[in-house]
UniProtKB/TrEMBL annotation:
<dbReference type="InterPro" id="IPR007387">
    <property type="entry name" value="TRAP_DctQ"/>
</dbReference>
<comment type="similarity">
    <text>Belongs to the TRAP transporter small permease family.</text>
</comment>
<dbReference type="InterPro" id="IPR055348">
    <property type="entry name" value="DctQ"/>
</dbReference>
<keyword id="KW-0813">Transport</keyword>
<keyword id="KW-1003">Cell membrane</keyword>
<feature type="transmembrane region" description="Helical">
    <location>
        <begin position="153"/>
        <end position="174"/>
    </location>
</feature>
<dbReference type="Pfam" id="PF04290">
    <property type="entry name" value="DctQ"/>
</dbReference>
<feature type="transmembrane region" description="Helical">
    <location>
        <begin position="50"/>
        <end position="69"/>
    </location>
</feature>
<keyword id="KW-0997">Cell inner membrane</keyword>
<keyword id="KW-1133">Transmembrane helix</keyword>
<keyword id="KW-0472">Membrane</keyword>
<feature type="transmembrane region" description="Helical">
    <location>
        <begin position="90"/>
        <end position="112"/>
    </location>
</feature>
<comment type="function">
    <text>Part of the tripartite ATP-independent periplasmic (TRAP) transport system.</text>
</comment>
<feature type="transmembrane region" description="Helical">
    <location>
        <begin position="21"/>
        <end position="38"/>
    </location>
</feature>
<keyword id="KW-0812">Transmembrane</keyword>
<dbReference type="GO" id="GO:0005886">
    <property type="term" value="C:plasma membrane"/>
</dbReference>
<comment type="subunit">
    <text>The complex comprises the extracytoplasmic solute receptor protein and the two transmembrane proteins.</text>
</comment>
Amino acid sequence: MKILRGFITAIDGVNYYTGRVVMYGIFVLMAILLWSSISKTFFLPSLWTLEMAQFVMVAYYVLGGPYSIQLGSNVRMDLLYGEWSLRKKAWVDLITVLFLLFYLGVLMWGALSSTAYSLGFWGSNPLEFFGGLLTGDQQIGRMERSPTAWRPYMWPIKAVMVIGIFLMLLQCLSELFKDVLRLRGEAI
């Protein structure tokens, strides 16, 4: 149980501070959109603003998700859930988080595959590619670029997605362990 509590404390801490930093990304998004409006009105329109706003929004959403789960501010069907006892809520949360972990595992595999593709890997096993990058057996190929006029590289935002999904997986494990502790009758 001490290991579970240590894991919960560590992951909750990482996601708390990540979420607190990332929540200011909304101001970055506002600045980009403000510049977009100003440049379209008074100057030549900027090519980068729309796509950069999309990238910032993706980072804001994906990196802020674990913080939202941690605070319990995610959307729930409160019609029945709100009236249940803490023990019943823990059982339901324990079961539903298992489905979420499966979904996030599939999402992580897709994100890893997409990130490997954006770095020029054409094979079917992204873990082999990233392992090869670490050992020096693999090289980065022709990097994927966006098909827009701005043509930014795609790997940075895809790497942010991998990090965000990984943090969400860890936060879901933390929530699972919290439910286990609740079911054992221990305070969290």
